[in-house]
Here is the input.
Amino acid sequence: NAGVTQTPKFQVLKTGQSMTLQCAQDMNHEYMSWYRQDPGMGLRLIHYSVGAGITDQGEVPNGYNVSRSTTEDFPLRLLSAAPSQTSVYFCASSGTGGNQPQHFGDGTRLSIL
Amino acid sequence: AQSVSQHNHHVILSEAASLELGCNYSYGGTVNLFWYVQYPGQHLQLLLKYFSGDPLVKGIKGFEAEFIKSKFSFNLRKPSVQWSDTAEYFCAVTLSGNTGKLIFGQGTTLQVKP
Here is the structure.
């Protein structure tokens, strides 16, 4: 009963490096989202997807790319890491319909030096 | 753009005190409303949700929230808090029919003193 699985849990990068945060869910949810959590700012939506092959931008998409080739996976890519991207990243998924709450992963704590 | 505002950023209470956390949203259409809780070092967990029907909704751990449409509010309440309620609380909104785009408030940190 894994739910939403994020890897890695912690990562330290140097400015300019690239990396991919992985997210997988086993609940056959159509909707998946990426958020970043920063102190005093709550969670802000980066990108989201309403199904395989469909993605859209959230509030803070700059510097991040996503793709959704399968229902289960929704990786988040940082092409050239910047210190401003130091944050805790959460992936979430939910079923379709207006009454389905989102299920969150455990988060990835990312530090950019 | 839609937004969610939580008025209390940091609340400190003694055990057994009553709790009310404010949440207002800005959107004139039909919304779905949520309260999530994040215990230290953990991911977000759903406390309660409102989609339609009775505006007073009950969640887990004795929490409840009231949806007042005329005030665009969805305040969270608990009659008697416990030390274990120490956590960060987030109000969130989705537009009806689109649960992939959850808009969060800034969060309220609740500290309960034993």
In short: Chain A touches chain B through 30 residues (CB under 8 Å). The longest strand of chain A covers residues 42-51. The mean pLDDT of chain A is 93.
